[in-house]
Amino acid sequence: MILEGWGRYPRLVSEVHDCATPAAVTEATRHLSGVIARGNGRSYGDAALGDAATLMCRGLGRMKSFDPETRLLTVEGGAMLSDILDAFVPRGYFPPVVPGTKFVTVGGMIASDVHGKNHHRDGGFGAHVANFKLVLPDGGVLTCSRDENSELFFATIGGMGLTGVIIEASFHLNRIETGWISQETVVARDLGEALAALQAVNDTSYSVAWIDCLSRGASLGRSLIFAGEHATREQLTARLPAADAFPPQKKAKLALPLDFPAWALNRASVSLFNEAYFRAGARKSAAPSLVHWNPYFFPLDGIGQWNRLYGKSGFLQHQCVVPDNNALSVLGEILQRFADSGKGSFLAVLKKLGSGTGLLSFPAPGYTLALDLPVTDDVFPLLEEIDRTVVDAGGRLYLAKDARQSRQTFEAGYPQLPEFRDLRRSIGAGHRFGSRLATRLGI
Amino acid sequence: MTRTGKSVLLLGATSDIGRATALTYAQAGWDVQLAGRNLEAVQREADDIGTQSGATVSVHRLDILDSEQFEDFLAGLPALPDTVVCAVGELGEQPRAEKDVEHARIVMRTNFEGPALLLGLLAERFAARGSGAIVGISSVAGDRGRASNYVYGAAKAGFTAFLSGLRNRLARAGVRVVTIKPGFVRTRMTAGMKLPGPLTAEPKEVAAAIFAAAEAKTRRDVIYVRGIWWPLMTVIRSIPEPLFKKLRL
């Protein structure tokens, strides 16, 4: 079967095995080699494409238990975040960390140690995982936590599925008073103001900046910064007295029924969009507003299959993190290169990060910048150049988004890689678990 | 979530339609009784539904081919349910059913004999109580026998006729009988088949249609989940037999 990630590049052939029960996972693991578990296929590049075979784990999606006293939720590895939100937001609970899409599985969230808009304060999803059950290379099942098999625990968080298959996981939900977010919008006229604004809202739970990456010159890096907190009952009754305290998830109203032609995105069309977006955002910046949790956390989920926007050849997402100290000059240089190239991403995302949890976790103290680029021949050398800037600054790229970085870039960015490789060797995972990403990067 | 104090019994609870229906009822505040052959698999669904909804869920072993155990099965339920939904089904393989009597027998008994006998027993109890809803998931395949699946289709035709008779008998006894014809549904049963998008429903859609028909008291007794199936099957039913027999369907 031909498989692809969310970016639709690369597209590769892999044998697939439906693993809808824990028993099916252990069985498949025992008999196959070069396999990787795949959840909902939302990693962008080749992380969920098996070297030889891919275990399709969406059917492994049941929830197991929830204790309202401790707020501990236990689910199977293929459980979808969107189902968890459906079930628990109406009851006044919210996951400790959510990434930018709700169409991901819990196993995938652990394997990528996903971060959300609260990473600067609360860390990534891995920081909130109490324990999980891992299917090892021999088909045996091991429970891992900070106290039990902790080496495997920290290797598996952010380990891209290369230590085993996560068939079950437990984590605590947070209580929320409402399903609304009290949001403040700050307008930053350039990159310096954007970084300062993110720093200024460091104590706020959620923060993220959307950068217009086509703006140049004095307005290079102009941004809108969105800071948010879960709204209290009091705030909701004061501002939206008629609103449902826990509004349900909305279905995607729009869906792209077909691939956009490649020429649809160009400097002119994207500039127009960005300009309109900024004017709308700036108008809202005067007063805090209440926003429904769904569009706040998952704005792009409102457009089904938005990955078709970039045409048939697919797109790349480039997401790097660079340390605090010279973030302004490094990010400025990167943005300048993108702006000069005119490779149109609608908006780039800028966010302050804290530390990661696992050996190969992406987050590191500093700022992360993510932007999308349609796949074209000339985009690869551009990204190579940008990678050199990232590496020189002591930064790295996010494996869950990656489809093309070089081994040198990867090795320079992940100092704990030798430890990870040793552990993989010691448990016999080397030949058993393998993805195209692992082979490409020599993990 | 406010609990209604009502309960629903799901026969064939581990099927994709069965579990989607159970979850729909649980999220509407109903207690749920799940029945199936493999108790471990039923328990997995029960944990899922209970965790997702906070509903009270009980599990019950049921072999639809073992009618001698039906009385004990019913006696083991925590309460006589307000609604029963039968999602038991076995597609089988038509070419095999043509040669292998045992295989054909299992398809016929699983789709017709077992469900009809058990729903018959429940109908007696509902009639005595003077209330209840019986939902049978039949199939468009039962609307007319076709070369490609007439063993399954014949069993479903029998089930459709049984439900129709039950409905006729109980109409004045306060018991509602609903026949659901889902058409194509994206489930394990149809995994690997090429299904035409507009004719294909998701299990959640079928569940919503069942809940609406059984509990919202719409007037319709026989439900095609996707409306387009009704004109389509009307046309297929009306083709004269001399012509029909020459078609490849």
Automatic annotation (TrEMBL), chain B:
The protein in question is named Short-chain dehydrogenase
Look up the coiled coil feature and give its residue ranges: none
Sorted alphabetically, which CDD domains does this protein's record hold? SDR_c
- Write out the GO MF terms: oxidoreductase activity
User: Which NCBIfam families does the record cross-reference, listed alphabetically?
Assistant: PRK07102.1
Q: Which domain of life is it from?
A: Bacteria
The record's annotation in InterPro entries points to: NAD(P)-bd_dom_sf, SDR_fam
